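Entry, Tuesday afternoon. Goal for today is a structural model of the target with zinc ion bound, before we commit to ordering more compound. Inputs were pasted exactly as handed over by J.K., no edits. I checked the ligand SMILES twice against the vendor sheet because last time a stereocentre got dropped in transcription.
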Amino acid sequence: MTTAKRPLPMLTTSTTAYWTGGAAGALLIHRCQDCGYYIHPPTGFCPSCEGRSCAPQAVSGRGKVASFTVNHQPWEADLEVPYVMALIELEEQPDVRIVANIVNCAIDQVHFDMAVQVLFEQHDDVWIPLFEPAPEDSP
Ligand SMILES: [Zn+2]
C-alpha cells in the first residue's frame, strides 16, 4: 500500500454528505433551509432560528486557518508524521469551523489567517476533505 493511511470516518445519515461530496468535487455543509445558517457538524437543528429543515449544500471550499497544531506523535503504526491539523473558518460563514489536515504545504509555512482551499483524498467510498494553500488574491 503506497497511499497514506488515514483513520476513516463512520458514515451516518447526517455526515454522509460531508464525507462523500468530494465524489462530485463539492464540499457539502448542512444549511438551514429557513434562514440560510450553515451548521457543522450537522445536528439537524438550526441554532440560529431553531428550525429543523437542514440540508447539505455545496460551499466554495475556501476558508482561513483559524487555529492549527502540528502532530508529531505516530498515534497509529501507519500514520505519517508530522502533519498539521487545522481549524478552518469557512468563507461563507466564519463560525463554521472544519477540522482538517493541511497538505501541499511545508509545515513551517502554515500560519494563522492563511487562505486555504479544499481538495479531496479518496479512500474507498469516502472523500476526505483536506485543505491546501490558496492564492491570497482569490475573490
Ligand atoms: Zn435557521
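Helices lie at 16-20.
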